[in-house]
Every structure is written in structure tokens, then in C-alpha cells.
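Journal club prep — side note

Before the paper discussion, L.F. wants everyone to see what a predicted structure for a comparable chain looks like in C-alpha cell form. Sequence:
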Amino acid sequence: MPVRKRKQLTCLTKAKYDIIVAKLNGTFDAPIKKRTLEQVKCLNLIRKRKDFTLDERGSLLCGGKQVLIKEDLPRFVKNTFLKNKGCGQR
């Protein structure tokens, strides 16, 4: 049976990113009854995708690739564009 490729993770909002990082650090301590829907969804995402890790700087990685924060995406694209001197896929 062929190995199924996993769907790539999209950008996360800052709140979701912080919840996942707190859970991986062991500092997430919201009581079960008081968890918001967003917290429950993030915890389910961690449970389903077992490839979340933290690098030595504390950045979130999924499958060895850095997870981007939606609010930081324009800055990341601009830096990549400048680093590549404008060339790349069109």
C-alpha cells in the first residue's frame, strides 16, 4: 500500500501558534471545561499531526519545516523576495 502524503500545514494565526507552542513546552494549563473552541481545535491538531516540534530558538516546526504566522507572512514574503533578488517562480 503506498504511503499517503500529508497535506501541508497552512499559516496559523498568532493565537493558534501560541497555543501549540505552549502545549509543546508543557505550559498549557487551561481546564478542560473552560477551553475555548479554538483551543480544542489546536489540541486536536496536535493529536492528529504528531510531527510538531520546537527548534532550539523556540520556533514551531511541522515536519521539519517552519510554521508561519499569518500576521508575519507579508514580511516573510518580502524578505524572501529581496534575498532571491526578485527571481523565482512567477
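L.F.'s comment for the group: Helices lie at 14-25, 37-48, 73-83. Keep this in mind when we get to the figures.
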